[in-house]
Design goal:
The structure is a single chain. This protein is mostly beta strands. The chain has no helices and twelve strands. The protein is globular, with a radius of gyration of 18 Å.
């Protein structure tokens, strides 16, 4: 069943403009919460949370995901234990244990696992990349990166707000 502010209780699908849908229970899924038109529209997995229009839209058997923002994680289907915060964050990722924070952060992920991507448009080196760290403000413009060997590299050096270099330049 779905609760829709304009109509009260409805069943199966909610349609309309500026509609909020809250699945109270859905066939085949358990302990799943969605708020936003199209949020978790196709879910059959468990313990997923989505907030925003079409957040987690194509999630089917995915488990324990958190999607916040319009189209956050909208293309992923079977992913699990991911956190995507920001419009378009997480894109069509099907990998597990990824964290993407920022507008379209991780939008290029496909099957990569255990990535941490922070900043608007920040992405892993490749869609199937695993164990990557990237903090910055656009794809290729990173302040800090890391790889699966636990190697940390400053992008243009770590600098304070005045542009002065702080800390070590090579790790």
């Amino acid at each position: 069943f779905f609760f829709q502010a304009e109509d009260g209780i409805r069943d199966y699908k909610v349609t309309g403009v500026q509609t909020c849908a809250l699945p109270i229970s859905a066939a085949g899924c358990s302990q799943t919460t969605a708020l936003g038109a199209g949020a978790l529209q196709n879910v059959s997995g468990f313990f997923n949370t989505a907030l925003g229009a079409c957040a987690g839209y194509n999630t089917t058997t995915g488990v324990s995901n958190v999607y916040v923002g319009q189209n956050a994680g909208a293309g992923g289907t079977v992913a699990g234990c991911n956190v995507y915060v920001g419009a378009g964050a997480g894109g069509a990722a099907t990998g597990n244990l990824n964290t993407a924070l920022g507008y379209c952060a991780g939008a290029g992920l496909t099957s990569g696992l255990q990535n941490v991507l922070i900043g608007p448009n920040v992405d892993a080196p490749a869609g199937n990349c695993s164990c990557s760290l990237a903090i910055g403000f656009a794809s290729g413009s990173y302040w800090l990166t890391g790889d699966s060997g636990r190697n940390i590299s400053p992008g243009a050096g770590i600098r304070d707000c005045t542009g002065a270099q702080i800390g070590r330049t090579h790790v």
